[in-house]
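Customer escalation, tier 2.

The customer says the design service returned an amino acid string that "doesn't look like it belongs to this structure." They asked us to rerun it and document both sides in this ticket. The original structure tokens are below, unchanged.
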């Protein structure tokens, strides 16, 4: 029970403490995780990561779902590489710091910097193809660029390097769906659920998937499983409300979202999910609460590189926000 409580605390952190650790091995380049002597089971069921697996450095998943690096126990700088490479005339001696520099450009929300981020991480992969953050982040960047075949290759390689990180399989699934591989999409989401039964994202994705297939009963089953994990977790609430939204029970969906938002005001570190804002905005618009619709659409625009905008274009959200604002000012 104690371990389960700890897992739930992890879910409520803005900077998600889902830890993947790396080690500077005896071989060149910086780290070949598969040969680093790390346990096969980095994410054991019902257990917080064993301290025996703490190497000289650490990985951390930050808001926006990118991997950054740090020193041991998430403090200080990541350890230096045993080799070096050059990028744009500069000698790079630390893959971890180089990775963080690229991710910082994304955190700055500068859309024009995405191409430079990709160049940096591609160079990093060329130097150290076994460095998990490079593979994972490059997959994320390719996905943003809608280069789904290349993204899938990176995510699949990342899964080979660290086979027990559940989120990689969610990315593999989403990318496969973009490529029309629906059976593989479902299988990889199931793999993610098996690896981390305490996270609701894969459950919600399966629920939404079955909604689009007009299978509401199956969708509801997965949404309910998400709710069972934690009645106040964003993805779980989203799933419940989305069922009502797609059933055209807009008032019910609106009330679920509104009630959840009021409860979460007591929580200073809620999970961020852009879909929550999207469906809350749509539900608010349908029931005539245009001010809330405008506010929720506006909240989405704070994260222009979120993968959600590959499903609903950024410009579409801008237009919906503008329309909501006009209606709000008219009433």
């Amino acid at each position: 029970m104690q371990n389960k409580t700890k897992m739930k605390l992890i879910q409520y952190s803005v900077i998600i403490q889902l830890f993947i650790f790396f080690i500077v091995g005896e071989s060149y380049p910086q780290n070949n995780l598969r040969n680093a002597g790390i346990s096969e089971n980095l994410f054991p069921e019902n257990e917080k990561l064993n301290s025996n697996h703490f190497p000289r450095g650490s990985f951390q998943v930050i808001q926006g779902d990118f991997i950054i690096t740090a020193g041991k126990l998430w403090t200080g700088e990541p350890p230096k590489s045993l080799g070096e490479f050059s990028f744009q005339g500069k000698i790079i001696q630390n893959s971890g710091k180089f990775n963080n520099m690229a991710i910082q450009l994304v955190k700055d929300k500068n859309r024009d910097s995405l191409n430079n981020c990709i160049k940096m991480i591609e160079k990093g992969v060329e130097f150290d193809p076994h460095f998990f953050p490079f593979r994972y982040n490059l997959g994320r960047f390719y996905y943003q660029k809608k280069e789904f075949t290349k993204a899938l290759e990176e995510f699949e390689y990342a899964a080979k390097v660290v086979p027990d990180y559940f989120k990689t399989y969610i990315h593999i699934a989403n990318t496969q769906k973009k490529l029309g591989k629906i059976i593989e999409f479902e299988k990889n989401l199931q793999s993610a659920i098996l690896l981390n039964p305490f996270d609701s994202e894969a459950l919600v994705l399966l629920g939404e998937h079955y909604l689009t297939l007009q299978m509401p009963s199956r969708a509801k089953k997965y949404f309910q499983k998400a709710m069972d994990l934690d009645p106040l977790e964003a993805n779980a609430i989203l799933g419940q409300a989305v069922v009502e939204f797609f059933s055209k029970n807009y008032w019910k969906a609106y009330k679920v979202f509104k009630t959840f938002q009021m409860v979460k005001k007591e929580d200073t570190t809620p999970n961020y999910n852009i879909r929550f804002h999207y469906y809350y905005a749509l539900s608010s618009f349908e029931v005539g609460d245009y001010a809330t619709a405008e506010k929720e659409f506006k909240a989405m625009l704070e994260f222009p590189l979120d993968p959600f905008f590959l499903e609903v274009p950024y410009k579409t959200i801008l237009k919906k926000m503008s329309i909501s604002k006009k209606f709000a000012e008219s009433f």
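Tier 2 assessment: The sequence is consistent with the input. Strands lie at 57-62, 66-71, 85-87, 90-92. The two ends are 51 Å apart (CA to CA). Sent an explanation to the customer and offered a walkthrough call.
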